């Protein structure tokens, strides 16, 4: 309980100034505070990326603390998945542009609503899409696909990419806490190894399951199920 209180307090104290910093940097990049040079833009984009990485870390640590303490309760309601995907696209639009990536959506007509916590569902999607962006080179594509198997009481949400992929032996560990994939290309990929672990726990709290499929050089597909009722 002491640890949970400490993390909650520290997270709040960090989030407030960080949100202000990210807000002002975004305003500079959008030209709202005057013209900036190319070198200034490049430096500000680095600040923005690092700030968002720190935001994700704070959110992950807070979620982890609540999960461990059994204090993360789902606020379920019937959610329109198509609307949730539009929100994801809006949130990541600038990051996708900067990374030279495109995002595609595949949503069937007459898709039933799912019984889920919209905030936690967004967290799962943000983790999976953010991960796909991280490991997909410029010029690649990220696809979010939703399917509803006939007569099934669940839908399947999949996030696929055309990124670097991973060998099969990594798939059994990819949802472990703090696990980092082998950096075969020598590049540095920021992250704590918590996003996928938290996503798995959130999916399982909803009564679903999550899994990954991948091959080196052929990209990855992360899929999870969500109950309709």
List keywords for this structure.
229 residues, 5-stranded mixed sheet, 7 strands, single chain, Heat Shock Protein 90, two-stranded antiparallel ribbon
Number of domains: 2
- What separation lies between the terminal Cα atoms? 33 Å
Element order, helices and strands? HHEHEEHEEHHEE
Structural class: alpha+beta
What would CATH call the architecture of the largest domain? 2-Layer Sandwich
Instruction: Note poorly predicted spans.
Output: none
- CATH homologous superfamily classification of the largest domain: Histidine kinase-like ATPase, C-terminal domain
- How many β-strand stretches? 7
**Overall mean pLDDT score?**
87
Lay out the secondary structure.
Blueprint: H1 2-29, H2 38-69, E1 77-79, H3 81-99, E2 102-106, E3 114-116, H4 118-134, E4 141-147, E5 154-161, H5 168-171, H6 195-205, E6 210-214, E7 220-227
Structure description:
The chain has helices at 2-29, 38-69, 81-99, 118-134, 168-171, 195-205, and strands spanning 77-79, 102-106, 114-116, 141-147, 154-161, 210-214, 220-227. The chain has two domains: 1-69; 77-227, Histidine kinase-like ATPase, C-terminal domain (Heat Shock Protein 90), CATH 3.30.565.10. Strand 4 (141-147) and strand 5 (154-161) form a beta hairpin. It has a five-stranded mixed β-sheet. The model has no long low-confidence stretch (mean pLDDT 87). Helix 1 (2-29) runs antiparallel to helix 2, helix 3 runs parallel beside helix 4 (118-134) and helix 4 (118-134) runs antiparallel to helix 6 (195-205). The protein is α+β, with helices and mostly antiparallel strands. The protein is built from six helices and seven strands; from the N terminus they run ααβαββαββααββ.
């Amino acid at each position: 309980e002491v640890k949970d209180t400490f993390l909650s307090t520290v997270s709040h104290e960090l989030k407030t100034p960080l949100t202000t910093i990210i807000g002002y940097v975004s305003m500079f990049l959008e030209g709202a505070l005057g013209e900036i040079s190319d070198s200034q833009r490049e430096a500000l984009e680095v600040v923005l990326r690092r700030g968002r990485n720190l935001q994700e870390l704070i959110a992950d640590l807070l979620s982890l603390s609540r999960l461990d303490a059994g204090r993360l309760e789902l606020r379920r309601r019937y959610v329109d998945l198509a609307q949730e995907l539009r929100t994801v696209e809006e949130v990541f639009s600038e990051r996708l542009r900067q990374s030279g990536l495109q995002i595609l959506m595949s949503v069937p007509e007459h898709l039933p609503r799912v019984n889920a916590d919209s905030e936690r569902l967004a967290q799962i999607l943000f983790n999976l899409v953010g991960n796909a962006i991280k490991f997909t080179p410029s010029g690649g594509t990220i696809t979010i696909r939703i399917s509803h198997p006939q007569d099934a009481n669940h839908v399947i949400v999949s996030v696929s990419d055309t990124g670097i992929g991973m060998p099969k032996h990594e798939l059994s560990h990819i949802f472990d806490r703090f696990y980092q994939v082998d950096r075969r290309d020598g590049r540095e990929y920021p992250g704590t190894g918590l996003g996928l672990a938290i996503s798995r726990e959130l999916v399982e709290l909803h009564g679903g399951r999550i899994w990954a499929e991948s091959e080196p050089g052929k990209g990855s597909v992360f899929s999870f199920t969500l109950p309709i009722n």
